């Protein structure tokens, strides 16, 4: 049911932003809609998601209306701090958003459209499990204004899917992609590497299967063992091996080689696209520190330098809204030094890089050694930016430490 919420200051019951915070109309605004429902819990997952037996009074059939209540609350909060901005991006994440009827997702999107408007050419993404993305679902959501599906492929190798507790039929990956394409939508495939028992050849098979389907975008994430998950307990008991760092590094390098050969360019450490137009604009808004409101239990938001997060459980979320209260559980306002660290941490991950001027004085002196070590692109540094090489992407945390020394 997800990791613990961060510590922070109490959030006001009405959700109001501090009086001295005004919204900058020049900063893009995005929307994240969290759908916290899953049929089964994957052993590696620590996202804020719930199976039917964990809902404890919360109702899936009431969820769309609850989110619409939060959208109405957000309108009042933001309207008091400046002009409302149209949503440049909308992202339905989870969980498994496509467990809800497509009409419910459409109503949630209509709520965003009616409240804020959608910018011309807005990117609207829905995450989907391959087994839940049918022709009917794709057609209905395309008609509602969805532009893109992010399909949770993870692997095409049955024993790897089993190790991850994924229940979808590998054959349905191609079916899901075909459904999205038939509806005229862009497609992203999400992969995970480093599962227990996964070999480099297994990983190659998944990459080749993914590229053969010709999606517009591919994400490839290293498996991370999160505290409190089933996978963490299995590793602690010695039932399965922990991920091998060296093997995961080899897997990353193989992914970058094969994806580049297939016409995909990296633009963030774990993300590749066929062209700049196919990059995930929503995720880029996080890495660039833009504004977004996250709706749903456990969702996080950032507006005008204020960050806040909602109560975790769907029942608590529904109760707060039924009382006319904000579901926000806490919030924080990072100081200038914390924001500079965050800029370096996030922007160094993307292909545009981060300005060398953002680094500390010692960090700027470290750039030359980062170039010598093959972690940072020398030509980009001459232009005043830190851009990671492939090796640097594998050691991104070390680069950040050097820049913030």
UniProtKB/TrEMBL annotation:
<keyword id="KW-0949">S-adenosyl-L-methionine</keyword>
<keyword id="KW-0408">Iron</keyword>
<dbReference type="InterPro" id="IPR013785">
    <property type="entry name" value="Aldolase_TIM"/>
</dbReference>
<comment type="function">
    <text>Probably acts as a heme chaperone, transferring heme to an unknown acceptor. Binds one molecule of heme per monomer, possibly covalently. Binds 1 [4Fe-4S] cluster. The cluster is coordinated with 3 cysteines and an exchangeable S-adenosyl-L-methionine.</text>
</comment>
<dbReference type="InterPro" id="IPR006638">
    <property type="entry name" value="Elp3/MiaA/NifB-like_rSAM"/>
</dbReference>
<dbReference type="InterPro" id="IPR007197">
    <property type="entry name" value="rSAM"/>
</dbReference>
<keyword id="KW-0479">Metal-binding</keyword>
<comment type="similarity">
    <text>Belongs to the anaerobic coproporphyrinogen-III oxidase family. HemW subfamily.</text>
</comment>
<keyword id="KW-0963">Cytoplasm</keyword>
<dbReference type="GO" id="GO:0004109">
    <property type="term" value="F:coproporphyrinogen oxidase activity"/>
</dbReference>
<dbReference type="InterPro" id="IPR058240">
    <property type="entry name" value="rSAM_sf"/>
</dbReference>
<dbReference type="GO" id="GO:0006779">
    <property type="term" value="P:porphyrin-containing compound biosynthetic process"/>
</dbReference>
<protein>
    <recommendedName>
        <fullName>Heme chaperone HemW</fullName>
    </recommendedName>
</protein>
<dbReference type="GO" id="GO:0051539">
    <property type="term" value="F:4 iron, 4 sulfur cluster binding"/>
</dbReference>
<keyword id="KW-0349">Heme</keyword>
<keyword id="KW-0143">Chaperone</keyword>
<dbReference type="InterPro" id="IPR034505">
    <property type="entry name" value="Coproporphyrinogen-III_oxidase"/>
</dbReference>
<feature type="domain" description="Radical SAM core">
    <location>
        <begin position="23"/>
        <end position="268"/>
    </location>
</feature>
<dbReference type="GO" id="GO:0046872">
    <property type="term" value="F:metal ion binding"/>
</dbReference>
<dbReference type="GO" id="GO:0005737">
    <property type="term" value="C:cytoplasm"/>
</dbReference>
<dbReference type="Pfam" id="PF04055">
    <property type="entry name" value="Radical_SAM"/>
</dbReference>
<keyword id="KW-0004">4Fe-4S</keyword>
<keyword id="KW-0411">Iron-sulfur</keyword>
<dbReference type="InterPro" id="IPR004559">
    <property type="entry name" value="HemW-like"/>
</dbReference>
């Amino acid at each position: 049911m997800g990791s613990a919420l961060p510590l922070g200051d109490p959030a006001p019951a009405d959700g109001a932003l501090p009086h001295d915070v005004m919204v900058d109309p020049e900063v893009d605004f995005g929307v994240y809609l969290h759908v916290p429902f899953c049929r089964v819990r994957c052993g590696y997952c620590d996202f804020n998601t719930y199976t039917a037996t964990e809902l404890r009074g919360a109702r899936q059939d009431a969820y769309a209306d609850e989110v619409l209540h939060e959208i109405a609350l957000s309108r009042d909060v933001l309207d008091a701090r400046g002009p409302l901005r149209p949503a440049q991006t909308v992202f339905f994440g989870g969980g498994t958003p496509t467990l809800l009827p497509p009409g419910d997702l459409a109503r949630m999107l209509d709520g965003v459209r009616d409240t804020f408007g959608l910018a011309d050419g807005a990117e609207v993404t829905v995450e989907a499990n391959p087994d839940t993305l049918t022709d009917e679902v794709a057609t209905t959501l395309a008609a509602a204004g969805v532009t893109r599906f992010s399909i949770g492929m993870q692997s095409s190798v049955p024993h790897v899917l089993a190790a991850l507790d994924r229940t979808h039929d590998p054959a349905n990956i191609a079916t899901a992609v075909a459904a999205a394409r038939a509806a005229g939508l862009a497609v992203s495939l999400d992969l995970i590497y480093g599962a227990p028992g996964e070999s480099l050849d297994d990983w190659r098979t998944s990459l080749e299967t993914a590229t053969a389907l010709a999606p517009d975008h591919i994400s490839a994430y290293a498996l991370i063992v999160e505290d409190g998950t089933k996978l963490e307990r299995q590793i602690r008991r010695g039932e399965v091996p922990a991920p091998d760092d060296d093997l995961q590094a080899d897997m990353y390098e193989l992914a970058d080689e094969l994806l580049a050969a297939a016409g995909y360019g990296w633009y963030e450490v774990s993300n590749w696209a066929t062209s700049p137009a196919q990059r995930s604009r929503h995720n880029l808004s996080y890495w660039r520190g833009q504004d977004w409101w996250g709706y749903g239990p456990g969702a996080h938001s950032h507006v005008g330098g204020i960050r806040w997060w909602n109560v975790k459980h769907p029942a608590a979320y529904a109760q707060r809204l039924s009382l006319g209260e904000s579901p926000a559980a806490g919030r924080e306002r990072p100081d200038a030094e914390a924001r500079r660290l965050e800029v370096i941490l996030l922007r160094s991950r993307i292909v545009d890089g981060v300005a060398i001027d953002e680094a500390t004085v010692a960090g700027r002196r470290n750039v030359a050694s980062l170039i010598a070590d093959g972690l940072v692109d020398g030509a980009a540094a001459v232009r005043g930016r830190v851009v990671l090489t492939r090796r640097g992407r594998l050691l991104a945390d070390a680069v950040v430490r050097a820049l913030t020394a």
